[in-house]
Design a protein that fits this description.
The protein is built from three helices and no strands. The protein is mostly helical and 72 residues long. It has one domain. The longest helix has 29 residues. The N and C termini lie far apart (40 Å).
């Protein structure tokens, strides 16, 4: 079982990153849902686009980290 103090410390340490991750996920799902409902696409294409959010997430934040590293 997870110690509550450890969990609280982890959340305090990563608060802004966790909020950014959640915001990215919410925006991605909202955009994909709005787009695919409007187009009337098949369900498998919708699920594939949702799964593509994982690739988009790592691509976006990976490139962002690369830019930050290059600036430093």
């Amino acid at each position: 079982m997870v110690d509550t103090a450890t969990l609280v410390d982890h959340v305090r340490e990563h608060r802004s990153g966790m909020a950014l991750d959640l915001a990215f996920a919410v925006v991605w799902v909202a955009v994909v849902t709005a787009l695919f409902r409007g187009l009337g696409s098949p369900q498998w294409a919708y699920h594939l686009a949702l799964a593509g959010g994982v690739v988009a997430y790592y691509g976006f934040f990976g490139s962002l980290a690369g830019v930050r590293e290059r600036e430093a």
